[in-house]
UniProtKB/TrEMBL annotation:
Protein name, UniProt field: Uncharacterized protein
Keyword Transmembrane helix in annotation: yes
Keywords carried by this UniProt record: Membrane, Transmembrane, Transmembrane helix
Bilayer-spanning residue ranges: 12-30
Length: 31
C-alpha cells in the first residue's frame, strides 16, 4: 500500500509526513 501511495520511495514518504505534521501544528497554532 505504501509503495502505491508513495512511488518515490521512503524519502518522499518521510517528506510528506513532515509536511502533514507541520500543517497540523500550524492549524493548532491558528486555532
Amino acid at each position: 500500500l505504501g509503495s502505491i501511495l508513495f512511488p518515490f520511495g521512503p524519502t518522499f514518504h518521510l517528506l510528506v509526513v513532515v509536511l502533514a505534521i507541520l500543517l497540523f501544528v500550524v492549524d493548532l497554532a491558528i486555532l
